Structure formats: structure tokens, C-alpha cells
Amino acid sequence: WHAADLLSKASICELIARVQPTHLYHLAWSASPGAFWTTPENVQWMESSCFLMDEFRRTGGLRAVGVGSCAEYSWQDGGVLSESSTPAVPFSLYGRSKLATGNYWAACSGVGQCSAAWARLFFMYGPGCHSSRFPGVVIDAVLNGRPARCSSGRQLRDYIYIDDVAQALIAIGESSVQGPINLGTGMPTRVLDLASRAAEMADGLHLFEPGAIPDHPENNPDSLLACIDRLRFEVGFRNFTPLEDGLVQMVDWWKRHRCQLDSLAPAGISP
């Protein structure tokens, strides 16, 4: 393992010079739940991520994969979001910073010997995800005997299991596909169904309170789903963990590790 401050240009230069990588996976970003949408650190991460690409290319790097977000798209109409046809008009500083970074990486791709892909992640779940993120917030509440108060949950979202994210990123890195690639399953899941099933698996369905809090009025469309044609047909990744199986693994992990959850750092990537 090599530790480095990726917000420091000097640290980036030292790391790249020491490791001299041929392949780069960039997942780091500010991801504190709730705060990541608006934090000024997004701009710092954008600048550092572009500098990281420059140094990687300058020292002979061959293949780079960065992790972006479905928040790079316009969410005004929702529905199925496509790399080629959905407007890239983000509503947040987070989305705008991710989009600008992905665009810069795409502009660098194919210049010289380096190629780059940008994975636009949808809604990840699974073991290790932060307890204040959905559906972890439901599982954490009921396991600790607290009411799990939720909104209506009427929305449809595209949830992808954390291990599938890792395997898909490996497949993208091993491919020659360039530019933005949606990273989701293409399958709709109603938020209410996922929340209630998670509560039931955690033996806390009696604590689940749908509709107890109002729906968020902005940037909360009825559906947000990934068009995964590029992932399936160009990258060749088609193996997804069934939602039921993923939830079993997630709840089991939570039961075994809940005493440590308060000290968990937020995941480095967010939707």
C-alpha cells in the first residue's frame, strides 16, 4: 500500500514517480453523507483529479478508469439515463465537478498512448457502506431498536451491489472502451420495497415507518435508471448479484459489525 494526499500536487507527483503505474483506478473524492453535494472540496477534487491524470499520462500511464456519478446527468425528467442522449446538466456542485473531471479525462483519452474511461456510478449498496446512507440507515435503526422513519418510497432507483461495482470496474479497466460508461444494473427497484425488505431481514419490520417523513421536493424524480448498453455490449459485463442476495449479505455484515459502525469512514464514492 502507498499512502498519499491526493489533494496535494507534490504528493501526487511523488506517488506517481515512486510507483510508475501503467494502470490507474481513481475512486477518491469527498463523500461525507449529505455534505458531499455542496462542499467546496468538490472543486479541489476536480482540480486534483485532472492533475492526477496529467501526471499519469506524462509518466507513461496506459489505462485509467475514474468513478463519476449518475448525478452528472439532468434529473429533471428522470427515467432511463443514457450516456449518449440524456443531457449532462447536473443540479449540484458535486455533479458539476464530477462531470468536468470526466470531460477532462475524456479529452485526454487517446492523446498519446493513454486511454481513459469514466464510470458513472448509480446507487451502490452492500457491506461496508456508511450507516447514514440508504439502505444502511434503515438496517442500523432497526438493529438498534429505533424506528426507521422513511418517506413514501414511491421512487424507482437503480441499485447495484458493491462487489458488482468492483468487478465491473475491473472489466472496464481491462477493456478498451473510452469515455463515460453507466455503472448500474438497468433494473428498477422501488425504494419502499428495498427499505421494507431490509427492515424485515434485520428482524425489525415492526419498527419500519414508511411515510413518516415527507418526500424531498427537489431533484427527486419518480425514476432514475441506468441505460447499460455500453457496459453490457461494449465492456461485456453482464453478471449482477440479485437484490435479495445482496441484501442478505449486507444485513448479515451489519449484524456482525454494528459495534464498529460508528467509526466507519464514509465510502469514497457516491451516486
Q: Can you describe this structure?
A:
This protein has helices at 9-19, 41-58, 93-108, 136-143, 162-174, 191-201, 229-235, 243-257, and strands at residues 23-26, 63-69, 79-81, 115-121, 123-125, 148-149, 156-157, 159-161, 179-183, 189-190, 208-209, 223-226. The protein is α/β, with parallel strands linked by helices and 271 residues long. It is 37% helix and 16% strand.
Essential attributes:
Rossmann fold, 271 residues, 16% strand, 8 helices, four-stranded parallel β-sheet, alpha/beta
Low-pLDDT residue intervals, each spanning 5 or more residues: 262-269
Largest β-sheet summary: 4 strands, parallel
Roughly how much helix do the residues carry, as a percent range?
25-40%
Question: What is the name of the CATH topology of the domain at 9-126 and 158-190 and 218-242?
Answer: Rossmann fold
Mean pLDDT figure: 93
Spatial sequence of strands, sheet with the most strands: 1-2-4-9
Strand content: 15-25%
Distance between the termini: 26 Å
| Protein structure class | alpha/beta
Whole-angstrom Rg:
19 Å
Task: Name the CATH superfamily assignment of the domain at 9-126 and 158-190 and 218-242.
Answer: NAD(P)-binding Rossmann-like Domain
Coarse shape: globular
Structure described in brief:
With 271 residues, the chain is an alpha/beta fold. The protein is 37% helix and 16% strand.
SSE layout and pairing:
Layout: H1 9-19, E1 23-26, H2 41-58, E2 63-69, E3 79-81, H3 93-108, E4 115-121, E5 123-125, H4 136-143, E6 148-149, E7 156-157, E8 159-161, H5 162-174, E9 179-183, E10 189-190, H6 191-201, E11 208-209, E12 223-226, H7 229-235, H8 243-257
Parallel strand pairs: 1-2, 2-4, 3-12, 4-9, 5-8, 6-11, 7-12
Antiparallel strand pairs: 7-10
Helix pairs in contact: 1-2, 2-3, 4-8
